[in-house]
Automatic annotation (TrEMBL):
The protein's name: Transcriptional regulator
CDD domains linked: HTH_ARSR
One GO molecular-function entry: DNA binding
Species: Brevibacillus laterosporus
Signal peptide: none
């Protein structure tokens, strides 16, 4: 039982730390989490709103609104397709002076995500251990 209490405390602390880190990072960039998801999609090249919408699991209208705000802040631009005028591409703005920072932070975030994946894996191991212990005790 003591192990479970320790695990619960560690999980609570990890959750609070994750919340604090992401809030601090996003506030320092004056950007929302959903906007970060969009920027991750276009940092390596333009995509359509439909492609972005699918990739981030948000509705087309929500993504369009988020892109409106990013465009207003000169972070992204919309580009009409030369062949199909109905198609609109979203790309990073050249004036977005944080584009290099974003790519750099993306590498940091990948490391963070790897560590998060390791933590999740460890939690699954703990869950399996607890299930096994519970089954043996019964």
């Amino acid at each position: 039982m003591e192990e479970l209490i320790t695990m619960a405390k560690l999980l609570k602390e990890a959750s609070a730390l994750f919340t604090w880190i992401t809030r601090e990072e996003l506030e320092s960039k004056d950007i929302t989490w959903q906007q970060v998801l969009i920027l991750e999609q276009i940092v390596h090249g333009p995509k359509t709103i439909g492609e972005i919408s699918k990739a981030v699991s948000l509705s087309y209208s929500t993504v369009s609104g988020l892109i409106d705000r990013l465009q207003r802040d000169n972070i992204v631009i919309r580009l009409k397709d030369k062949k199909d005028k109905r198609l609109v591409w979203v790309a990073m703005s050249q004036r977005f002076d944080h584009a290099d920072d974003f790519a750099e932070h993306q590498a940091e975030m990948e490391t963070f995500e790897q560590k998060t994946t390791q933590m999740i894996s460890s939690l699954h191991v703990l869950q399996e251990m607890y299930t096994t212990k519970k089954r043996i005790s019964s």
